[in-house]
Amino acid sequence: MEKNKVAIALATLLASSMAWSQGYVIDPPSRAALCQQGENHCGYGERYHADEVITIAGSHDFAAPGKIASAGNDEFDGLNTEGSHWQKTVIGEVPLDISWQLTRPTQVSSWKYYLTEPNWQNAIGTGQRLSAENFIQTPFCTFAGDGKFHQGMITHQCTLPETQGYQLIYAVAELAQVDGHPSEKITNIIDVDVIKGEQHSDAAIHTHWQKEIGTLDHLIRGKPLKINAGDTIRVRFFDHISEVPSREISVSVLPGEEASWSETVANAINQKYQDVRAGVFQPDGDVQPEKGEINSVYVPQENPLQGVEITIN
Question: Where is the signal peptide (predicted)?
Answer without folding.
Answer: 1-21
